[in-house]
Design a protein that fits this description.
Number of domains: 1
Strand content: under 5%
Number of strands: 0
Order of helices and strands: HHHHHHHH
Number of helices: 8
Radius of gyration: 17 Å
Structural class: mainly alpha
Largest sheet: none
C-alpha cells in the first residue's frame, strides 16, 4: 500500500514534489496569501500576548507554536510572485522566506532569544507593511 493510500488519498491525485500543496486546488490570489500571512502573525501575537521573554522561553508549547507559524509564514512568502514583491519592495522577501533556517541551530534547537526578537520586533513591522500591501492588492482585485 502506497503512502497516499494510507491517508485515504487516491493515486490519481496530483501532488507537487514536496507533497505540501495539492496541485488540483484552485490557485490562491496574492491578496489571500498576504491575508493568510497577516493571520499567522496574529496567531503568534495571541500566543505570546503579554508574556515576557522569560515566560516565553519557559513555555515550550508556545515556542513550538510560534516556530510553526513562522515556518508557515516563510513558506507562504515563498509563494508571493515577483509582481507583488515589487509592490512592497521594502519587505525583505528572501530573508523572510529563509527565516526557518536562521531560527533553528545546527543542533535542531531554536535559539529562543532570536525567535523572541523576531516575534517582538520583526513581525509587528512586517504585519504593518503587509496590511498596507493587502489593501493595495484588494483594491486592484489581485
Amino acid at each position: 500500500m502506497g503512502a497516499g493510500q494510507n491517508l485515504g488519498i487516491s493515486e490519481s491525485m496530483d501532488f507537487d514534489n514536496n507533497f505540501l500543496f495539492y496541485t488540483g486546488m484552485p490557485k490562491r490570489t496574492q491578496s489571500v496569501i498576504v491575508e493568510d500571512i497577516i493571520s499567522f502573525i496574529g496567531k503568534i501575537d495571541s500566543y505570546t500576548g503579554e508574556l515576557s521573554y522569560q515566560e516565553f522561553s519557559l513555555k515550550p508549547m508556545v515556542v513550538d507554536a510560534c516556530l510553526h507559524n513562522i515556518q508557515i509564514i516563510g513558506d507562504a512568502i515563498a509563494t508571493i510572485n515577483d509582481e507583488t514583491r515589487h509592490k512592497a519592495d521594502t519587505i525583505p522577501w528572501t530573508l523572510i522566506s529563509g527565516m526557518r533556517g536562521r531560527l533553528i541551530s545546527d543542533s535542531l534547537e531554536a535559539d529562543h532569544e532570536v525567535v523572541w526578537h523576531v516575534i517582538t520586533n520583526a513581525l509587528p513591522e512586517l504585519k504593518h507593511k503587509l496590511e498596507r500591501l493587502h489593501k493595495r492588492l484588494v483594491a486592484r482585485n489581485l
